[in-house]
Amino acid sequence: MTQLALVIDLNVCVGCHACVTSCKQWNTSGPAGFMSDDNPYDKDPNGTFFNRVQSFEIGEFPKTETVHFPKSCLHCEDPPCVPVCPTGASYKREEDGIVLVDYDKCIGCKYCSWACPYGARELDEHQKVMKKCTLCVDRIYDESLPESERKPACVMACPTDARLFGDVHDPDSQVSTAIREEGGYQLMPEWGTKPANHYLPRRKTRIKIHEDELIRADNPLKKEGVKPRTVVDEPTLDDVTSW
Amino acid sequence: MHPAFSVIFLTTLIGVGQGLFLALMTGQSYAAVGLVTVSNPNEFYAYGSVTALLFLIGGLIASFFHLGRPERAWRSAARWRTSWLSREVIVLPIFMLLVFVYGMLHFIGWDPNILGAEQPLQGQLSLFVGILGMVACFALFICTAMIYACMKFLQEWYSPLTVINYIVLGGASGFTLATLHASVYEPGLTQLFGVWATIITLVALVTRLASLYRNTRIKHKSTIQSAIGVRHSSIDQKTQGMMGGSFNTREFFHGASQIWYRSVRWIFLILTFPLTLALLWAGLETGNGLFLALAFVSQYLGLIAERWFFFAQANHPQNMYYQSI
Ligand code: SF4
Ligand code: SF4
Questions:
Q1: Is this complex's ipTM strictly greater than 0.90?
Q2: pTM value?
Q3: Which of A81, A98, A101, A187 most suits a substitution to test ligand 1, by most atoms within 8 Å of the C-beta?
Q4: pLDDT digit string (tens) for B56-74?
Q5: A 49-88: CB under 8 A from B
Q6: Looking at CA atoms only, how far is residue A167 from chain B in angstroms?
Q7: Domains of chain B by range and CATH?
Q8: Gap between the Cα atoms of A56 and B260, Å rounded
Q9: What is the largest CA-CA distance in chain A?
């Protein structure tokens, strides 16, 4: 089985919101219709987004660190938002594990948004249907695009390559390798939703050097009192050999 | 959660309708085995059913205001295998139909003894329809409450107490209305319903206090640490990614001041329980229907506040991502 997902590397995300804007641009221009955007340049801007970047300060001054945290639908493997939908508008695709909303069936009852612990769904204020990340399902299979561009818009836009996209069920994929080797984790594992999207933690590169590796403990020259001394009353090598 | 008035009215209005229907059936069961005599059965049951139906219709209308796309509401019956909301959408009209048939049988006075006239039980057809109605009524209570009680990370709701409270609070308001109804159409039954209304209100007081007790001491499983996956005791949000608010900030926070939030709890506790009980008692003692009407009004207003508080108290885990702008 395939389960497409994003892996987001918090170690390199710089919080530039490029994924947010490119997501909005791609998805508001798509066949599924616009994404509301009221007063974008005015007082009280308000709109629908699939993806948000939030920032958190970890620790207390002066020992602080800023973590930029992009958040979108995690395409859970056991999505609590799907069974609660009364119309069947919310569904999880068998073939690639993407969780989608059928905008033509949704009645806008918001029940699925209550059932998502991550707050990944937003009701569109104008179309009055539930919206969420589609993993750019209208892009990743589009054969008119060059193969290298068949990725979600956010992944294409990320300047630091903090967003990886692929099949997390294939153990040899780039995303699976990253999760395995870089300590990828899931959000709120306590609810058993099994999010397909993973996050890679902040990582510090440190090498461990012990002091005795810098100052060689077994260096004979450093041993006190046992420096080799010249023997003066014996013939030297020059005396006994004829070169 | 943000308390939506559509849902507050839906759940409280159908609760009254359901409770009233249960009260009518209680009356008819007593009468069927000869414990009480109903002097004017047709009017009493038929008008009672009409009243119950009006409350149910009111609830149904309110529910449409909750939908973004009400014209597609018929689609919501599709997923009854998995969704409690879908089940509610199916059970509500079934129950309304049964209440209608039950009322009509009494109204036209057509009540053949389908089990045979020699049986001691009289009014068998309407009893039979009424029992079906009771089954649908409890099914509806369960569906409505399970919509909330089935979501495990909304820990304030994820409890059998949610289901129990929906049943007893709906029942209490329905029996209080039945007391008023009896005082108008069948004064002989006023005491019976009044006593039941008092008992159910007292039970509701106990179970609602139990859920308040549980909810104020709840320990939330999700923390900001598990929400973003960083292990540090001090995590402080600096931005939520937008400044103008969004669906996430509007739908999941009650948005009321702490003072208002706390006072609503006292308002609903006082209106729904002691004030209603006092007015019921006054009505039964003096035989004055005005007290009974006030008892119902007080309890219904109390239940609106109760439902507001029920939503406001539920703390959605997504709120952890929206702590500061
Ligand atoms: S993140 Fe939320 S909306 Fe997305 S699949 Fe999981 S539960 Fe559903
Ligand atoms: S808002 Fe739409 S997608 Fe969500 S549960 Fe209701 S009908 Fe289903």
A1: yes
A2: 0.91
A3: A81
A4: 999 999 999 999 999 999 9
A5: 49, 52-60, 66-67, 69, 71, 80, 82-88
A6: 22
A7: 5-220+248-322 (1.20.1630.10)
A8: 31
A9: 107
